[in-house]
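Run log, item B.
One chain of 67 residues. Sequence copied directly from the ordering sheet:
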Amino acid sequence: MLADGLRYKSKVSGSPFTAATSFGAATMSCFLCGKHRARSQMVTRKILGKSQAVCSPSCKAADEAAG
């Protein structure tokens, strides 16, 4: 952090989560753990009466497969 309180002098425009060229390659955040994963690694489950995207088969299994 700089003395005047700024965290950076310039920022790169855009988002690290930009939509990819194909729908399946785009990322979404898991409703349960909050981590961004490819849509192909997620499944929808009904949580609190609404369909939500969550890690497939589970958040723990997805973390172990990624790392």
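Observations after the first pass:
- Residues 59-66 form the longest helix (8 residues).
- The chain has a mean pLDDT of 81.
Flagged for discussion on Thursday.
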